[in-house]
Each structure stands twice: as C-alpha cells, then as structure tokens.
Amino acid sequence: MMNNDTLLNLELPGIKKLKSGKVREIFDLGDSFLFVASDRISAFDCVMPNGIPRKGEVLTQVSHFWFDQTEQLVPNHRLVKAGESFNVPALAHIPAESKAALAKRAMIVKKAQPLPVECIVRGYLAGSGWKEYKKSQTVCGSPLPAGLQESSELPEPIFTPSTKAETGHDENIPFDEAKKILGDDIANQARDLSLKIYKFARDYARQRGIIIADTKFEFGLFEGKLILIDEVLTPDSSRFWPASEYAPGKGQPSFDKQFVRDYLETLTWDKTPPAPALPPEVVAKTQAKYLEAYEKLTGKKL
Question: Residue 140 — very low, low, confident or very high, per pLDDT cuts 50/70/90?
C-alpha cells in the first residue's frame, strides 16, 4: 500500500509472500527470493503505525552500494544489480506503475540458508556495550582497557555475536557459544569476514564524513559456502555518526532512528504495541537523515 509515497504493506498478485518482517517483505520467485524494503520503521522492537517515506529505497540502495564495494572481500546473495530488479521473467506480469515504485526498493537474491547467529562488530563503545562496560569493563564478556568513555573508539574492533529472536530482543552470546551453534569452522569464518568487512567499510565511510560505530552482518550458506546476505551497512543495521561532530564522553548524533527514539522517550508510552504514530516533523527529520547518509556515502543524490 503506497500512501503519500510511503510503502507500508505489499502484496504482489500471483507471487507467494514468505515473510513480512519489521521492514522487509520476502517473496518466493521459485529459484530466488525477492526482497522488498518497505518504509516501516521500528523502535524498541515495535513497528510504528506510520513509516518514513523513501526509507526502503535508502536501505536497498545503500546495500547495493556496499555489495559493489565488498564483492572482492566476500561473495553475497545479490543476483541482480541495482535498478534491474524488475526485468526478470518471474515479475513480467507486474503492472508497470508497480514496477516503477518498487524497483528502487527491491533486490533479487539467492536462496541462502541464513546462519542462526547475527554477526555484530563494534568499533566504538555505545548502546548496550557502554552500559556493560560501565558495570564490568567488558563488552559481551570481552575485557577492555580501563578509562574508556562513552563513544570511545575501541583499541581494535570486536566481534560480538548474538542469537536471533523472532520476537523481542536478540541475546548477546560469547564466541564459544556461537561456535557450539555454528561449528568452529563456520563461526571462525563468520567472525573473520565480519571484522574484515567492518574495517574496510569503517575506513571508507570515515573518508566520507561518517563514523560506523557498530554494525550487524548476516551470513548464509549457499552451495556449501558462506556468503553475505540481507541488508548490509545501512542506517538500520549500523550506528552511523557524523565524523565532524564526533566527541567522545557522551552519546553522538546519528544518521538513523535517533530522532524517533528521542521522541518516543518523551512520551508516557510503555514501549509495547500498539506504538504511537510519529508526528510529521519527526518523520521529516528522520527521512532527511536517511537521505543524507546515502548521499554522504555514495556522493550521489537518491
């Protein structure tokens, strides 16, 4: 359903929808999947009733951008390059106006088997990591030097896997636990690839005025090999900070849902569904941040 250029729900006639996640709609094309990023936005694990116009376009196009940049480091699940998504036989019967609306926010991908562990890399001390550090001088059990502040850059990026929760919060787990779930070989590969991609992206983004404080990668198995899947290094899966305003010792402004979270914290809402509608100014500021992140990273306007 498009509403003022905001896509909240989607059905495609004659194509089976497999899943509707917090943001993505996943359809079965037979030999591949169609991922469509909606404009839904979630905060505190609740989906807001109104979305952020063009947010799905930003997520898809940023993922395309990073898949292009990282193909030499790791294979990924993308089958069709940016902008070509709807020129495939399985989608030939979709009306032209629907194709135009969806092409920028859709990606056709391989049918990989997702790993049951999320691969998180933290390069800076923020969020739940900062809370844990204050208590125990560790992040996800990894000991860190004394004297770090909120938003400090870590001496080296750290890999902090978590379980995947269908509902509610994912749980951070020690690397040894990830090895039990995945097996040593796959767990080691996932960790090493996560750190390699993060370091590459961190250095790339830093030159363009963005600090990638942390990020979440998803990997899957395809034909027996580990490949990068889902979205990658987007404002939804990462914490992006403007480098020009970076100042350790406090929370940082960011290019993601921070306006939404900050607004929700001013309400008496108890952070359980149903979530409250976002006012127009919060929607507009959040959209501007997503678009700015795309423009800074790619050097292009969306």
Answer: confident
Q: Measure Cα distances from 288 to 46, 58, 209, 256 in Å.
A: 22, 11, 16, 10
Sequence-ordered list of residues with C-beta below 8 angstroms from that of 159, at least 6 positions apart, any chain:
119, 120, 121, 175, 191, 194, 195
Q: Measured between alpha carbons, how far is 197 from 236 in angstroms, rounded to an integer?
A: 17
Query: Which residues form the domain of 123?
Result: 114-259
**The two structure tokens encoding residue 13:** 């006639």
Residue 269 lies in a domain: no
Kindly provide the b/e burial profile for residues 190-203, where b requires at least 16 CB atoms within 10 angstroms of the residue's own CB.
Answer: bbebbbebbbbbbe
Contact by Cβ (8 Å): 105, 36: yes
Spatial distance between the Cα atoms of 40 and 23, rounded to a whole number of angstroms: 5
260 to each of 47, 87, 250, 265, 284, how far by Cα in Å?
11, 36, 19, 9, 11
Query: What does the DSSP assignment read for 147-211?
Result: T--TTPEEEEEEE--EE--SSS---B--HHHHHHHH-HHHHHHHHHHHHHHHHHHHHHHHHTTEE
Cis peptide preceding 280, ω within 30 of 0? no
User: Counting Cβ atoms within 10 Å, is residue 270 exposed (0-12), middle (13-18) or buried (19+)?
Assistant: exposed
Q: What is the pLDDT of residues 14-52, one digit of tens each?
A: 899 999 999 999 999 999 999 999 999 999 889 999 999
- Residue type at position 112: A
SS3 of residue 232 by DSSP: coil
Q: Do 253 and 182 belong together in one domain?
A: yes
Can you tell me the distance from the alpha carbon of 286 to that of 258, in angstroms, rounded to the nearest whole number?
8
Residue that is last in its domain, among 111, 127, 150: 111
The secondary structure of residue 75, as a DSSP letter, is: -
Asked, for residue 293, whether it belongs to a domain, the answer is no
23: nearest Cα among 34, 37, 3 = 37
In a domain, 302, yes or no: no
